[in-house]
């Protein structure tokens, strides 16, 4: 008999989502606009800011990828431009650069947060400027929920006057020095894909800081229709708005977001305890108290010289055999066939983490039984 699959990260409904969906049906708001969309935007905004800072606006969109695409357009990224992007990330961080006909310039990670390295970032900026092309934007990612080095990265952004697009797709509920991730960038994006900490099945949001920018984002996301009784267009538009049905799921999910964060952090603590007496396996943790990760995914790195020869692959296969999903870390973009022509600045940190790192089941809906099976499969591998 095969055992039930344990997933890396699966949707975890709170229960009230269906109420918002029923509202949409009752009032025939079956469209990419409506009270759930407006309400979901307000929920996100008040979560990010505690309603204190009116300067940010949230636009709910069809995906995080769409949000990144609009962010690049709003920053004026065009054909032939260069945009700096953290190399170790999901391809969705980088693909929209190419949608705009621009070139990604990839930058390595530092080993504390696994995110974009300030030293390599500044190197890259200086050299691109010397070559005659100042990068138009920096895409920095809070990978697996861990905040990037916010102060260092934004200091460089200010010094060279290059805006930051904050990819907070994995980091809703994380914070840095008490400020929520999603509020640092000139523009920020969130994702509500099925595997994220909360989900709308598919969806995303753009967080803007400049007054008027949300309006422009929604204009572009709704086919860039000019004001006229007929359909008139002066620029290219997109169909990127979020469905009122999906937004209903989002409203219910916002009610349980803090519970989901503590559920994920409990999984992280489970792995810290599990590996505390295992030599050569490090559970990736916050560098200090400035950082608070939602631990969307719990990550280990395995040093086979210290584990007595047990490698990342041994652990991965041992879990796979027990029908437990796990996955190597994101393969860096500069190693991807599709980006092999793109410039890269780094010293191989991301490559090493890609080789030795493993994402472990991290869902807030895992049971004691699941944890027992995970523990057994991992310890099996060490007791052989
Ligand atoms: C999921 C994700 C995205 C894209 O979000 P979608 O909603 O799936 O389009 C972008 N960046 C990162 C880092 C992600 O994990």
UniProtKB/TrEMBL annotation:
Gene3D superfamilies: Aspartate Aminotransferase, domain 1, Type I PLP-dependent aspartate aminotransferase-like (Major domain). The keyword Cytoplasm does not apply. GO terms for biological process: polysaccharide biosynthetic process. The keyword Transferase applies. Pfam families: DegT_DnrJ_EryC1. The modification N6-(pyridoxal phosphate)lysine is found at residue 196. The active site is at residue 196. Keywords: Aminotransferase, Pyridoxal phosphate, Transferase. SUPFAM superfamilies: PLP-dependent transferases. GO terms for molecular function: pyridoxal phosphate binding; transaminase activity. Belongs to the DegT/DnrJ/EryC1 family. This is Pyridoxal phosphate-dependent aminotransferase. It comes from Christiangramia salexigens.
């Amino acid at each position: 008999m095969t055992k039930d699959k344990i997933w890396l990260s699966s949707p975890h409904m709170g229960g009230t989502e269906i109420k918002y969906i029923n509202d949409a049906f009752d009032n025939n708001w079956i469209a990419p606009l409506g009270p759930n969309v407006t309400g979901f935007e307000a929920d996100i905004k008040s979560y990010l800011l505690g309603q204190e800072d009116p300067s940010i606006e949230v636009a709910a969109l069809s995906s995080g990828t769409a949000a990144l695409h609009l962010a690049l357009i709003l920053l004026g990224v065009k054909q032939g431009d260069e945009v700096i992007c953290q190399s170790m990330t999901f391809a969705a961080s980088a693909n929209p650069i190419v949608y705009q006909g621009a070139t990604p310039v990839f930058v390595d990670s530092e080993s504390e947060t696994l995110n974009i390295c300030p030293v390599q970032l500044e190197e890259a900026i200086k050299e691109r400027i010397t070559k005659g092309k100042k990068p138009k934007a920096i895409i920095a990612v809070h990978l697996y929920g861990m905040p990037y080095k916010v102060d260092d990265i934004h200091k460089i952004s200010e010094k060279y006057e290059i805006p930051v697009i904050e990819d907070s797709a994995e980091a809703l509920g994380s914070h840095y020095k008490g400020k929520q991730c999603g509020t640092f960038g000139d523009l920020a994006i969130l994702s509500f894909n099925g595997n994220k900490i909360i989900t709308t099945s598919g969806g995303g949001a753009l967080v803007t800081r400049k007054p008027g920018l949300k309006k422009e984002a929604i204009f572009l996301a709704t086919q860039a229709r000019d004001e006229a009784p007929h359909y008139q267009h002066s620029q290219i538009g997109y169909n990127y708005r979020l469905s009122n049905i999906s937004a209903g799921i989002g409203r219910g999910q916002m009610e349980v977001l803090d519970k989901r964060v503590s559920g994920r952090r409990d999984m992280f603590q489970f792995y810290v305890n599990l590996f505390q007496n295992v030599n050569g396996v490090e559970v990736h943790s916050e560098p200090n108290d400035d950082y608070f990760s939602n631990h969307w995914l719990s990550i280990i790195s395995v040093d086979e010289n210290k584990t007595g020869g047990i490698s990342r692959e041994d652990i991965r296969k041992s879990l796979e055999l027990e029908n437990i999903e796990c996955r190597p870390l994101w393969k860096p973009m500069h190693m991807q066939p599709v980006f092999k022509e793109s410039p890269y600045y780094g010293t191989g940190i991301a490559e090493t983490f890609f080789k030795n790192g493993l994402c472990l089941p991290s869902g807030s809906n895992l049971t004691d039984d699941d944890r027992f099976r995970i523990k057994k499969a991992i310890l099996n591998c060490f007791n052989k």
